[in-house]
Design goal:
- Helix content is 29%, strand content 24%.
- By secondary structure, it is an alpha+beta fold.
- The strands form six sheets. The chain has a four-stranded mixed sheet with strand order 2-15-17-16. A four-stranded mixed sheet has the order 4-5-3-14, covered by helices on one side.
- Helix 1 packs parallel to helix 3 and helix 4 packs parallel to helix 5.
- The protein is globular.
- The protein starts with a strand and ends with a helix.
- It binds shikimate-3-phosphate.
Length: 431
């Protein structure tokens, strides 16, 4: 399918976001190994989180979804059942990497795989620490999925993360629940801490000292009632859209504002976006608030701060849409230290550069990022999404600010993180 999109003259209204994807995965997995029943409200409707629920069901977990509420009957820390068939993580790196940590603590053999994109993403980063802990893991050549995991009682380890990855950190912390002693993970670059927050909420014991996070083994986790905040990474598309389309004003209620994720807000505020945070609260340790964003004329007239260094890990999912913002900024934009983008759902550096060039933007591709001079204008074009949800949504935003019609190929891939994105977008475009 191909979706035609025309430039917008203004955007207005309220955007209802899906529940946060990262938090939904973690709540579901911890609920599955807790005692008792958990109810998770506003659970992400995304296809990725559905993959997590399906994997858990294949492991004997009773998980029911009614509307946006998911009810999970926990099976206890060591209570998952051997799956009768291959576990399918779909497109979801978070599912395969985090669940591997839990599977490593169970004495049966499981095989976990994913779609074509996931089957080409690096798993050595979780295989190595899990092997150090004593799990038996095999992969396809070059440490690619499927993973065959046979676990059991693990050894507690002290592990310095070689990549800034919340997925790897979380995998080791979850495996640490099955250790014979505590497990500590060091992250030199801080990444999203949803696993740490959720583990504590379910009753796990965690100590954080400097860059080290240490988890105690063998806790009795307790089922809980939880409410997932709105997905800030989904909000990013609308925040940038309102910055690019004159006379826009959007309200995004109940957005997750976790300290490690709100780097996006801090960046956009530094860039000069007019965003107000209202009604800030926190539920189960996760801050949230309503975001009101208004178009401000000066924004695109000033240089955007470069995206580089430690900041990258906490902006990693938002870089595609920030690159679109950069393409229209008078000072251009430079992105460096973002090698990790090459191993996401697609090679996102290449996908961004190819599609920006198709839209008439002069952009230099670098191994770890890109660089664009300022003073350019997006032109309507054909967008090849590479089946990558964030590329599809980022270039939908580009289309609103472009001259002429843009055609998004395979737009349905947005469902991986944001089912309803196209309707939400249509609803705020002023006719
Ligand atoms: C995620 C962490 C990030 C992010 C992904 C979700 C998570 O991946 O890109 O979309 O939920 O932990 P890495 O931690 O591997 O960079």
């Amino acid at each position: 399918m191909t979706l035609p999109l025309n430039p917008a003259t203004s955007l207005s209204g309220t955007v209802l976001l899906p529940g946060d994807k990262s938090i939904s995965h973690r709540y579901a997995m911890l609920a599955a190994i807790a005692e008792g029943t958990s109810t998770i409200e506003y659970f992400a409707a995304s296809r990725d989180c559905h993959s997590t629920l399906e994997c858990l069901q294949s492991l004997g977990v009773e998980a029911r979804q009614r509307g946006q509420t998911v009810t999970i009957k926990g099976r206890g820390l060591r209570g998952l059942k051997a799956p009768a068939h291959v576990l399918d993580a779909g497109n979801s790196g978070t599912t395969i990497r985090l669940l591997s940590g839990i599977l490593a603590g169970h004495p049966f053999e499981s095989l976990i795989t994913g779609d074509e994109s996931l089957s080409n993403r690096p798993m050595g980063r979780v295989i190595r620490p899990l092997q150090m802990m004593g799990a038996d893991i095999e992969s396809r050549e070059r440490e690619l999925p499927p993973l065959r995991i046979r676990g059991g009682s693990l050894k507690g380890i002290r592990y310095s993360l070689p990549v800034a990855s919340a997925q790897v950190k979380s995998c080791v912390l979850f495996a640490g629940l099955y250790g014979d002693a505590s497990t500590a993970v060091e992250e030199t670059i801080p990444t999203r801490d949803h696993s740490e927050i959720a583990l504590r909420e379910f009753g796990g014991t965690l100590r954080i000292q400097g860059n080290w996070i240490e988890v105690d083994p063998g806790p009795t986790l307790q089922g809980r009632h939880l409410v997932v905040p709105g997905d800030l990474s989904g909000a990013a598309f609308f925040l940038v859209a309102a910055a690019l389309v004159p006379n826009s004003e959007l309200l995004l209620p109940g957005v997750g504002l976790n300290g490690r994720r709100r780097e996006l807000l801090d960046y956009l505020l530094r860039a000069g976006l007019n965003i107000k945070v209202e009604n800030e609260t926190a539920i189960a340790g996760e801050p949230r608030g309503d975001l009101r964003v208004r178009y401000s004329q000066e924004l695109l007239q000033r240089p955007l701060p470069p995206i580089q260094g430690e900041q990258v890990a906490n902006l990693i999912d938002e870089i595609p849409v920030l690159a679109v913002l950069g393409a229209q900024a008078s000072g251009g934009l430079t992105i460096s230290d973002a090698h990790e983008l090459r191993v996401k759902e697609s090679d996102r550096i290449s996908a961004i550069v190819t599609n920006l060039r198709a839209m008439g933007i002069e952009v230099e591709e670098k191994a770890d990022g890109l660089s664009m001079p300022g003073g350019q204008q997006l032109q309507g074009a054909d967008i090849v999404t590479r089946n990558d949800h964030r590329i599809a949504m980022a270039f939908a935003v580009a289309a609103l600010a472009a001259r002429g019609e843009t055609r998004i190929h395979n737009p349905e891939c947005a469902d991986v993180s944001f089912p309803g994105f196209w309707t939400a977008l249509r609803n705020v475009i002023a006719m």
